[in-house]
């Protein structure tokens, strides 16, 4: 298949390697880039850190060395690996998703927790911990910024019907893709779209796309199964 990845460059590179190893031709045109916000650290010293993304740590590690030894409550192995790369050395508990992390924290004694969050995020962590005795402080350490346009060669491939499937991993990136395609005067309603979840698929369906597929499981393996 001829597939288009719209993920951020680092994520797209990993996925591209796997797809090409399976024999697919892969186009890459990231629709967003991740940037540090530069938000200063002004809260009281926490007793633990919460993070759901591997991008949470790079902007704060150098600015706040006092945070490095704190216990970590994380979502996903990649988030844990990123924390260690940036010098965060505290004991760690890793959950597979946000709901799992909230369940773990609900069983922990009350703490002052610092959530290293993205500007654009789902409310799962904050909503899930609102009814607990934990005090959750939030600092937005990174944000996803939309690019100005799709790559010219990708626009041409989409316009000429060359793409057999566009892979979408987040609702926001799907929304940005639709915006950029419209800006380039490319009709995406007939292109097949392969989505991580029903939530990711929603804006594509709302835009009138005729062929929208959802992965059987919301992970990389589930997405690759749509390309088999």
CATH class of the largest domain: Alpha Beta
**Mean residue pLDDT:** 93
Shape: elongated
- Major β-sheet annotation: 6 strands, mixed
Residue runs with pLDDT of under 50 for 5 or more positions:
none
Quickly count the domains: 2
Task: Give helix and strand order, one letter per element, not per position.
Answer: EHEEEEHEHEHEHEHEHEH
Q: Hey, roughly how much beta strand do the residues contain?
A: 15-25%
**Annotated CATH architecture of the largest domain:** 3-Layer(aba) Sandwich
**Record field, number of beta strands:** 11
Number of helical segments?
Answer: 8
The proportion of residues forming helix, as a percent range, comes to 25-40%
**Spatial ordering of strands, largest sheet:** 3-8-7-4-5-6
Radius of gyration: 19 Å
What name does CATH use for the topology of the largest domain? Answer: Rossmann fold
Kindly describe this structure:
The protein has helices at 9-21, 77-85, 98-106, 124-129, 152-159, 171-183, 198-206, 220-225; strands spanning 2-5, 25-28, 32-36, 48-51, 72-75, 92-95, 112-118, 135-146, 165-168, 193-195, 212-214. The radius of gyration is 19 Å and the shape is elongated. Helix 6 (171-183) packs parallel to helix 7. 32% of the residues lie in helices and 24% in strands. The protein is an alpha/beta fold and 228 residues long. The protein has 8 helices and 11 strands. The mean pLDDT is 93. It folds into 2 domains: 2-31 and 149-225, 3-Layer(aba) Sandwich (Rossmann fold); 35-144, Rossmann fold, CATH 3.40.50. The strands form 2 sheets. Strands 3-8-7-4-5-6 form a 6-stranded mixed beta sheet, sandwiched between helices. It has a 5-stranded parallel beta sheet with strand order 2-1-9-10-11, with helices on both faces.
């Amino acid at each position: 298949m001829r597939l288009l990845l719209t993920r951020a460059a680092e994520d797209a590179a990993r996925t591209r390697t796997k797809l090409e190893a399976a024999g697919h031709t892969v186009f890459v045109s990231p629709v967003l880039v991740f940037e540090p916000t530069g938000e200063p650290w002004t809260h009281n010293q926490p007793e633990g850190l919460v993070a759901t993304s591997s991008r949470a740590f790079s902007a704060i590690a150098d600015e706040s060395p006092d945070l490095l030894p704190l216990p970590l409550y994380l979502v996903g192995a990649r988030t844990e690996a990123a924390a260690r790369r940036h010098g965060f050395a505290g004991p760690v508990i890793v959950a597979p998703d946000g709901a799992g992390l909230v369940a773990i924290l609900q069983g922990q004694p009350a703490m002052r927790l610092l959530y290293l969050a993205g500007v654009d995020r789902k409310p799962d962590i904050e909503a899930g911990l609102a009814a607990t005795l934990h005090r959750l402080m939030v600092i937005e350490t990174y944000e996803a910024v939309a690019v100005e346009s799709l790559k010219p060669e990708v626009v041409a491939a989409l316009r000429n019907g060359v793409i057999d499937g566009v892979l979408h991993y987040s609702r926001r990136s799907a929304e940005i893709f639709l915006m950029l395609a419209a800006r380039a005067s490319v009709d995406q309603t007939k292109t097949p779209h392969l989505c991580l979840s029903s939530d990711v698929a929603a804006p594509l369906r709302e835009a009138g796309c005729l062929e929208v597929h959802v992965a059987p499981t919301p992970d990389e393996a589930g997405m690759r199964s749509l390309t088999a």
